[in-house]
Design a protein that fits this description.
globular; 163 residues; binds zinc ion; mainly beta; four-stranded antiparallel sheet
């Protein structure tokens, strides 16, 4: 019996992500594969579902619709911030994700869409909201998650969280 992708497994992947136009949006390389903890919402639901039950060496090609990807863009007012409101040392560039504490203490993700001097405009929509995600992935390693990883809800290691 060999291991397959399921709850509490750490999965190592090679992956390529393209949009409808065939443009490569994200790609892992030999030195830096993607590690994720299955069942912990580390990756988009559509890809996680497609990987369940797969084994090392399996390849998956899938088109994930927005409903199982990054959702549909919502009409929301852009958020305006000052550079001084952000943690020091954080890269302030377009596409950078910001995790802010919301009113009800929930974590809110914002993506920087514009930087003008010390004025920053951010949006609550993921940059890939509304897009079909064309994934080509290969499972290259599988192991059981450690207790720490299960508690933290993410994979540790060279290309996981470094702490
Ligand atoms: Zn951790």
């Amino acid at each position: 019996m060999s291991a397959t992708v399921g709850e509490n497994m750490v999965v190592t992947l090679h992956h390529t992500l393209k949009n409808d136009g065939g443009e490569v949006l994200d790609e892992s390389n030999e030195e830096q594969p993607l590690l994720y903890l299955h069942g912990a919402n580390n990756i988009v639901p559509g890809l996680e579902e497609a990987l369940a039950g797969k084994a090392v060496g399996d390849k998956v090609e899938i088109i994930v619709p927005p409903e199982k990807g990054y959702g549909m863009p919502q009409k929301m007012k852009p958020v305006r911030l000052r550079r001084s409101e952000l943690p020091e040392g954080m890269p302030v560039v377009r596409g950078q994700v910001l995790m802010m504490r919301g009113k009800d203490d929930r974590t809110v993700h914002l993506w920087i869409t514009k930087v003008q001097g010390s004025d920053i405009v951010a949006d609550m929509n993921h940059p890939l909201a509304g897009e079909n995600l064309h994934f080509a992935v290969e499972v290259i390693d599988l192991r059981a998650a450690s207790e720490d990883e299960m508690t933290h809800g993410h994979a540790h290691g060279p290309n996981g969280h470094g702490h």
